Amino acid sequence: MAIASPERTDATPAPPAAEPLRKTEPGKLWPWVKRASWVELGIFAALCFFWLAPGYDHEAMIFGWAHGLGFIALCVFIWIAILRREAPYTLLAATLTPVGPLGSVIGIEVIERKRRS
């Protein structure tokens, strides 16, 4: 059984054209996203050190909690910047890679180099 498609007549309005994505422009939130990414990278580096070093179980737990909560906050912060069109979606994608905060710092550097050129 075939489904008949509606025929188009001249009186039928054309569907609206898709708008291209607007370019993102850094705003008031952008410097704070950069700072939060660097702070989270520092917490993550400290966590890696205390996790690998023997005898620092308590410190590893503290930095583990700090990294977990900080990483969630960083992702929400980046999402808010995306909604305000101050950051591209690719920054959130870079942040959600397995390297975490290192991905956000690298993503920010790539975005800023593209904007400079």
Keywords:
117 residues, mainly alpha, 62% helix, elongated
- Alpha-carbon Rg, integer: 22 Å
Mean pLDDT: 85
By DSSP, the count of extended strands is 0
Largest sheet: number of strands, sense, barrel closure:
none
- Give me the number of helical elements: 4
Helix share, percent:
55-70%
Structural class category:
mainly alpha
Please sum up the structure shown.
The chain has 117 residues and is an all-alpha fold. The chain has one domain (30-116). Helix content is 62%, strand content 0%.
Would you kindly provide a written description of the structure presented here, covering whatever features stand out?
There is one protein chain. The chain is mainly α and 117 residues long. It has one domain (30-116). It has four helices and no strands. It has helices spanning 30-52, 57-83, 89-95, 101-116. α1 (30-52) runs antiparallel to α2, α2 (57-83) packs antiparallel against α3 and α3 (89-95) runs antiparallel to α4 (101-116). The radius of gyration is 22 Å and the shape is elongated.
